[in-house]
Amino acid sequence: MSPEATPVQSAVLVTIIGETVLKDSIVQLLKSHNVSGYTIIQVQGEGGHGRRLGDMAGYNTNIEIKTIVSPEVSDTILLALKEHHGKHALIAFRQKVEALY
Fold first, then answer.
1. pLDDT tens by residue, the chain, 101 residues
2. How close are the terminal C-alpha atoms of the chain, in Å?
3. Are 14 and 67 spatial neighbours (Cβ–Cβ below 8 Å)?
4. What radius of gyration, in Å, describes the C-alpha atoms of the chain?
5. What contacts 24+ positions apart, CB below 8 Å, involve 95-98?
6. How buried is residue 21: exposed, middle or buried, by Cβ count under 10 Å (0-12/13-18/19+)?
7. pTM (2 d.p.)
8. Burial, 68: exposed, middle or buried (Cβ in 10 Å; 0-12, 13-18, 19+)?
């Protein structure tokens, strides 16, 4: 199949895991970079900031936000997230993907 006929595009999957209190700020960041969509899910786990059980709504809870963007937009998003790093539990990473979007 020729590359022109392939329905997928190279892209970057950005995954952000952080405290629920950061949700509005992160969504605003994504929208300011014209992200076409994102997914948010409630998560729980344990890491450098202790256990996040998610047993009480809004308290000690984490969310995971995923979005597919260009490499350039992923650079900008990760750089902007540095302002929250150290103040809140937050980890972000990216992976090269091939996506239909």
1. 555 677 888 999 999 999 999 999 999 999 999 999 999 999 988 766 555 554 555 556 899 999 999 999 999 999 999 988 778 889 999 999 999 87
2. 19
3. yes
4. 15
5. 95/12, 95/13, 95/15, 96/10, 96/11, 96/12, 96/13, 97/10, 97/11, 97/12, 97/13, 97/68, 98/8, 98/9, 98/10, 98/11
6. middle
7. 0.82
8. buried
Residue type, 100: L
Task: State both tokens at 59.
Answer: 């308290």
